[in-house]
Every structure is written in structure tokens, then in C-alpha cells.
Design brief:
This protein is mainly beta. About 0% of the residues lie in helices and about 50% in strands.
């Protein structure tokens, strides 16, 4: 990286403020002719509190309106991404294999900067002797020339390439509020910090203005970049859906049934996953895929409460992330003789699996089947509600009186105890017994529809919840001493 930056700031009468910034960045990882990028920014501020007409509003301690526009750049690609990549391989020639190289990643000699332009309007205020303070921001951003690793058709002879593609739009709202709720002469105090944010992202353009979707990469105009695109599980096929007994078909649950009514391809039997047939043609194929959700939460928030009484202090931190899907890989199922993938989870924490059986006609999980019959649509088992409200931390402390501390030749002494991630207040995933922690601890990967139905895997570029490394619950006891 090589950067140049200049900034100028001007203020008039501590009321009107302006800051102008210009920046030039160069990145050697990008293509020749596209290594440098220039982007400006301007910020404006109006200290309304310093206007003459505000003097009569004595309960207002601070009031400032601000806004700005700026462009930022992103060059986050690995070195040599513009040059492509070769992998050692071999090919048949004569009686022995000959050394060769396979093109793994296609070169892009035109790869350049990704850029984002953002507008922001904010309001800062303080009221009632600063007992209520807040920062409110509303923003909108537009990103273009996005740096993406794109899956290429197999006919190209390579897997992926980096390209500058498409446009996205993001807009959101953020608020940070601090309050002093109680403040008594007897030494009891209670104050709070509250944060809340909403962000809405969507793709506004793909490779051309006319293109509305790229199903191979899971991109759709009008949707976030990170969506789940697959067939939709609507339950489990039940005994009543089969017309009778077929002795030639043996099921692991001990019953033998004809294929279910209304579906001709592929043939399915009671106890198997039932998915939505969008076009009602009796055939489940790639045309029946749909957008099932997004990894983008509807909102996030935090709530911190601090209490103190004389020498004692207590702080409690709560955090929430609501309204998004997560991928639970250990609940996706695999076809073939291996049966369900989660049969192989005996070495880690176990989940509560409500399997379908003749005596338990549930719609949660299909019948356990380790036979050679292939399990179809097992990927649909892993898409779950990832909403949660967690207690992040609880901290309690005691500060010894100064007179006592001075007797032992110290200036201050405080003992404290803290617990991190003590418990979960709300989580549909944990309540159902399918996870021990709802918060994502993995990223990326792709999930293919199980059962060999010819539907290719769609990348899942966001949050996954795994059993192996949940959030740590930690207890800490300590002493703060100053001599």
C-alpha cells in the first residue's frame, strides 16, 4: 500500500464547521493501470446549541446537527489474484503420466478498486444537565465495482476468478442513548447505555442492468448478497400420503409403503423430507428452489445497566441480534450408504433429534435410515432461526474505603468478580435442543442439496453455527490495587 492524504478544517464562531479530505491509495495487489484510487470526503457540522435563540432552552445542554458525504475504497484481494493460479497435475501420454499444470483461478488483468459512496445525517444532543445524551445517525451507501470471487462454469476449465461486478445499496439507522436514571444523596446511582441499529442491504445491479439473478452464485437483484437459496422443507411425508404397501420397497422404520401420491420424480416414501413443489408438476428439481431467508439480522441492540451504592458497583450487559437465519451444518443430512451426516457427531456435543417413526409421525426430522436409499433434500434441515438475546457479562465489585487503604500504604484497592456469557435469555435454536449456543462461530462454505438430485451447491457466505467451539463462559476474580 502507498497512500497520500490531505485534510482541511474550518470553523466559524464555533457554530459552523466544515472538514474536507482528499486521499489517494495505491495497492500493488491490483492490476496494472488500476492500482491507484482517489476518493474525497466532506463533513459539515452545525452547533445549534451556540445559537442565540437556544439560550432560553436551559434544559438543553448540547445540540448539534451534522452531515457528510464520502467515498471509501476496498482493495481486499490476496496478492497475485490478478495473475491467476496454476496447480501441479498430470496427464496421460505414452506409458506414464506426464507433468502438467491445471488452471485453478482465472487471471483478471483489469481488476481494480471497489468503492462505496455514503451519505450520513446525524444528531447529537444532551438534556437535563447531561442526564440524557444521545447520538442518532441515518445513512445510505452505494457500492460499485464489488470485488467478488466468482464461480465459473465447468466448461471454462477453472474454478473461480476475482472480478469487479455489480452494485449494492445499503441504508440504516443507528442510535446510542445514555441516561442517568437515579442519582441520590444516599449514594445509590443507576445509569444505562442503550444501542440499536438496523441495516438493509440489497443488490441493485449484477453484471448488466438487465440481469436480475445469478443462481449459480446465489445473487438476486433486490435481495441481500447473503441469501439462502434452496428448496423449502414443508414437513415430512406421512403414512397417509402413501396409497398402500409395496413389498419390494423396504424402509428402515420397519414399515413398507408405496411412493407418496402427487409426486412422480423423484419417488419418495413416508418418513422422508417433503419440500414445496412450486409449480405443482409432481417433479422436484432446480426450478423449485426459492429464497428461504438471509443471514442479515433485522436489528441488533445492546443494553448496559450500571448500579452503584456507596462502595459497591454492579454492571450488567445484554446483547440481542434478531431476525436472521443461520446455517447449522451438523443438521444437514447426507445421502448414500452413510445415512444422516449427524449420525457421525458422536465425538462432539449431541443434539436432540426428533426423528420420524411409525409411532412418532413428526414433521421435524426424517426417519433415521442408514440403508442405501438416498436421503433427499437434507440441506433444508440446516436452515434455522438464529435470533438470540444473551447476557454478555455481569460484573460486581467493591472498593475499600480510602482510610482503610491508606493504613496499609495503598492509594486504592478494589476487588471484583466477573462472568462472561453467563446465560442465554432467548434463542429458538437453543430452546429446541438443537444447539448449545446460537451465536455464529463459523463463516462461509456451501451446502449442496442432498440426494443426488442434480441441484448444484449454492455458496453460503455468512454465519454458521457449529457444535465444536461455542462461546466461552468465563469466570474471573480479580484485584485492582494502586500503591
Amino acid at each position: 500500500m502507498l497512500s497520500y492524504m490531505a485534510r482541511a478544517a474550518y470553523g466559524y464562531d464555533d457554530r459552523y464547521l466544515i472538514t474536507v479530505t482528499g486521499r489517494v491509495d495505491g495497492a500493488s495487489s491490483l492490476a496494472p493501470g488500476n492500482k491507484y484510487f482517489t476518493y474525497p470526503a466532506v463533513g459539515l457540522g452545525w452547533n445549534i446549541i451556540n445559537e442565540k435563540f437556544m439560550k432560553k432552552y436551559t434544559f438543553v445542554n448540547n445540540l448539534k446537527l451534522r452531515g457528510g458525504y464520502g467515498i471509501s475504497g476496498n482493495r481486499n484481494v490476496a496478492p497475485y489474484s490478478t495473475l491467476g493460479e496454476l496447480t501441479p497435475s498430470a496427464y496421460n501420454f505414452g506409458s506414464t503420466g506426464q507433468l502438467a499444470y491445471t488452471l485453478t483461478n482465472l487471471a483478471n488483468p483489469n481488476l481494480g478498486w471497489q468503492s462505496t459512496g455514503q451519505y450520513d445525517i446525524g444528531l447529537d444532543f444532551a438534556l437535563f444537565n447531561n442526564r440524557i445524551t444521545a447520538n442518532i445517525d441515518v445513512y445510505k451507501q452505494n457500492t460499485k465495482d464489488i470485488l467478488l470471487s466468482v464461480n465459473l462454469p465447468p466448461s471454462t476449465g477453472t474454478g473461480t476468478t476475482f472480478e469487479n461486478l455489480g452494485k449494492t445499496e445499503g441504508k440504516g439507522f443507528e442510535i446510542n442513548l445514555s441516561t442517568v436514571n437515579i442519582q441520590t444523596k444516599g449514594g445509590f446511582n443507576w445509569s444505562s447505555d442503550f444501542s440499536f441499529s438496523m441495516n438493509r442491504e440489497q443488490i441493485t445491479e449484477l453484471t448488466t442492468p438487465q440481469q436480475q439473478f445469478d443462481k449459480g452464485n446465489g445473487w438476486f437483484v433486490g435481495q441481500p448478497i447473503n441469501v439462502i437459496y434452496d428448496v423449502k422443507k414443508i414437513g415430512i411425508w406421512q403414512i397417509g400420503d402413501s396409497p398402500g404397501i409395496d413389498p419390494s420397497k423396504s424402509q428402515a422404520n420397519g414399515a413398507v409403503y408405496l411412493p407418496v401420491r402427487g409426486q412422480t420424480s423423484p419417488a419418495q416414501y413416508p418418513g422422508q423430507i417433503r419440500v414445496e413443489d412450486i409449480d405443482n408438476n409432481g417433479v422436484i428439481n432446480a426450478n423449485d428452489r426459492q429464497i428461504l431467508g438471509t443471514f442479515q439480522p433485522k436489528w441488533e441492540g445492546g443494553f448496559t445497566n450500571r448500579f452503584s451504592y456507596k462502595a459497591f458497583d454492579l454492571s450488567v450487559v445484554t446483547f440481542a441480534r434478531m431476525g436472521m437465519k443461520v446455517l447449522v451444518p451438523y443438521m444437514t443430512a447426507d445421502g448414500g450408504s452413510a445415512g444422516f451426516a449427524f449420525f457421525n457427531q458422536s465425538r462432539v456435543n449431541q443434539i436432540r433429534t426428533n426423528y420420524w417413526t411409525v409411532n412418532n409421525p413428526t414433521n421435524d426430522f426424517p426417519a433415521p435410515d442408514a440403508s442405501t436409499d438416498r436421503l433427499l433434500y437434507g440441506s433444508t434441515l440446516g436452515y434455522r432461526d438464529g435470533s438470540f438475546i444473551k447476557m454478555r457479562s455481569i460484573n460486581v465489585g467493591y472498593t475499600f474505603p480510602s482510610k482503610l487503604v491508606q493504613k496499609i500504604r495503598m492509594s486504592s484497592l478494589r476487588v471484583y468478580a466477573n462472568v462472561t456469557n453467563p446465560f442465554i435469555l432467548y434463542s429458538p435454536l437453543v430452546k429446541s435442543g438443537l444447539a448449545i449456543d446460537p451465536e455464529g462461530n463459523g463463516y462461509g462454505g456451501s451446502v449442496a442439496s442432498a440426494g443426488g438430485d442434480g441441484q448444484a451447491a449454492v455458496p453460503n457466505r455468512q454465519i454458521s453455527v457449529n457444535l465444536n467451539n461455542p462461546s466461552i463462559r468465563q469466570f474471573t476474580f480479580g484485584v485492582n490495587a494502586k500503591f
